[in-house]
Specification:
Layout: H1 3-17, H2 21-32, H3 37-43, H4 50-89, H5 108-122, E1 126-127, E2 133-135, H6 136-139, E3 168-171, H7 177-189, H8 191-195, E4 203-212, E5 223-233, H9 238-253, E6 259-267, E7 270-279, E8 290-298, H10 300-305, E9 314-320, H11 322-330, H12 337-340, H13 343-346
Parallel strand pairs: 1-4
Antiparallel strand pairs: 2-3, 4-5, 5-9, 6-7, 7-8, 8-9
Helix pairs in contact: 1-2, 1-4, 2-4, 5-11
The structure holds 3,4-dihydroxyphenylalanine.
3,4-dihydroxyphenylalanine binds near residues 176, 294, 295, 317 and 319.
Length: about 350
C-alpha cells in the first residue's frame, strides 16, 4: 500500500473514531488543516520536476478528494445519529390518552364531621379539639367515674405507662373528657366575672375527634370517632337538649319527618341520662329505632369539676358517633370499610 493510500486509510479510521462533530473537526485538521498531512505533502512537491509534479499532484488530489468525501460522509452520519437520538428522546405518542390530574376528596367521615360542625356552628356552638392521649382524671374521674366504678369496665382501653392523676396515660375512650377540659379553659377566661358574681357567657361547644376502645367487629373499630356536645348556662334545660338535638338530626339527614326518642339510660356524668334513638319514616331503614347518641343533664359533680357552682350553672351534654351517622346517611353496613383505605370504596363519596 502506498503512502497516500495508507494516509486515506488512517483518515478513515480517525474519522470513524470521532463520536462528536467537534472530535471530527479535530481529526479533519490533522489531514486538511493548515499544517495537516495533505498540506505538508503539497509543500513537499516544491523540489520535484514539472513532470513529477503533474503525476504526484494528481495522486495527492485523488487522495485529498477521498479524504474529503470520507469527511462529508462521517459528518452526515454523526448529524443523522444526533437527530435520531433527539427524536428517540422526545418520542411523542399522539395516540396516548391525556394526562389527568388526580383530584382527592374528603373521607366520608370527614364529610360528616364538616356537616356536624356546620350545623352546630349555625346554632352558635364553638368547635374544640383535645388530646387523644388523655389522663385518667379527665377521661374518668372528673366525669364522676371514680377508680372502682363499674362503668370503667365498659371502656376497656389502651394504657400507656407512667401516668399520674393529671398526666396523660391512656387513649381516650370517648370525647367526654373535652367537657371538663374545655369548661376549665372557659371558666379561667371569665374567672373575674364569675368571682364578681356576674354572669359568664354560656359554654356552648362541640368537640369532635378520634376515640379508642378494645373492640373490633362490623360495627366496632378500635379507633372510632365521637363528637361531644356541651351547653352550660344558668338556665339550660333538658328541653333545650331535645330541641337542639332534634333540629340537628333533621338537618343532618335532611328529613323533616324524622322522629326522635329519648330513652332513659345511665351515664356517670349525667343525671338524668338518656340514649337518643332516631326513626326514619321512609327509605330502607324506615320504622326501625336506631341509636345515635348518649346524652343527659350534666351531673353536679362534673359541673363542680369544671370550676362552677352547680347551684348556679346547669346544662346538658351529648356524645354521638359520627361513624354511625355516616353509615346511616350513606347506607354503609360495615364500619371497617371506613378505615381500610380502599380507594374503590372511598371514591364513591367524591
Ligand atoms: N361518653 C359516652 C360514651 O362514650 C357518650 C355520652 C353519653 C356522652 C352521655 C355524653 C353524655 O356527653 O351526656 O358512651
Amino acid at each position: 500500500m502506498n503512502e497516500l493510500d495508507s494516509l486515506v486509510e488512517s483518515a478513515q479510521q480517525l474519522f470513524a473514531q470521532a463520536l462528536t462533530p467537534a472530535d471530527l473537526e479535530n481529526a479533519k485538521a490533522q489531514f486538511l488543516g493548515k499544517s495537516g498531512k495533505m498540506t505538508e505533502l503539497m509543500k513537499g512537491m516544491a523540489q520535484l520536476s514539472v513532470e513529477e509534479k503533474k503525476s504526484r499532484g494528481a495522486a495527492i488530489n485523488v487522495a485529498k478528494q477521498a479524504i474529503e468525501s470520507l469527511l462529508t460522509a462521517r459528518r452526515k452520519a454523526l448529524a443523522d445519529a444526533e437527530l435520531e437520538a433527539h427524536l428517540k428522546a422526545e418520542v411523542l405518542d399522539v395516540t396516548l390518552p391525556g394526562r389527568r390530574r388526580g383530584t382527592g376528596g374528603l373521607h366520608p367521615v370527614s364529610l360528616t364531621l364538616e356537616r356536624i360542625e356546620g350545623i352546630f356552628g349555625s346554632m352558635g356552638f364553638d368547635v374544640a379539639e383535645g388530646p387523644e392521649i388523655e389522663s385518667d382524671w379527665f377521661n374518668f374521674t372528673a366525669l364522676n367515674t371514680p377508680e372502682d366504678h363499674p362503668a370503667r369496665s365498659m371502656h376497656d382501653t389502651f394504657y400507656v405507662e407512667g401516668g399520674t392523676q393529671h398526666a396523660p396515660n391512656l387513649l381516650r375512650t370517648h370525647t367526654s373528657p373535652m367537657q371538663v377540659r374545655h369548661a376549665v379553659q372557659h371558666v379561667k377566661k371569665y374567672r373575674n366575672l364569675i368571682d364578681a358574681g356576674q354572669s359568664m357567657p354560656e359554654i356552648r361547644v362541640i368537640a369532635p375527634g378520634r376515640t379508642y376502645r378494645v373492640d373490633s367487629d362490623a360495627t366496632h373499630s378500635p379507633m372510632f370517632h365521637q363528637c361531644e356536645g356541651l351547653w352550660i348556662g344558668e338556665n339550660v334545660s333538658f328541653k333545650d337538649l331535645k330541641v337542639v338535638f332534634t333540629d340537628f338530626c333533621k338537618t343532618f339527614f335532611e328529613q323533616d319527618d324524622l322522629v326522635l326518642r329519648f330513652r332513659p339510660s345511665f351515664f356517670p356524668f349525667t343525671e338524668p341520662s338518656a340514649e337518643i334513638d332516631i326513626q326514619f319514616q321512609s327509605g330502607p331503614l324506615a320504622g326501625r329505632w336506631l341509636e345515635v347518641a348518649g346524652s343527659g343533664q350534666v351531673h353536679p359533680n362534673v359541673v363542680r369539676n369544671m370550676g362552677l357552682d352547680p347551684e348556679k350553672y346547669i346544662g346538658f351534654a351529648f356524645g354521638m358517633g359520627p361513624d354511625r351517622l355516616t353509615m346511616l346517611r350513606y347506607g354503609v353496613n360495615d364500619l371497617r370499610l371506613f378505615f381500610d383505605g380502599d380507594i374503590r370504596f372511598l371514591s364513591q363519596f367524591q
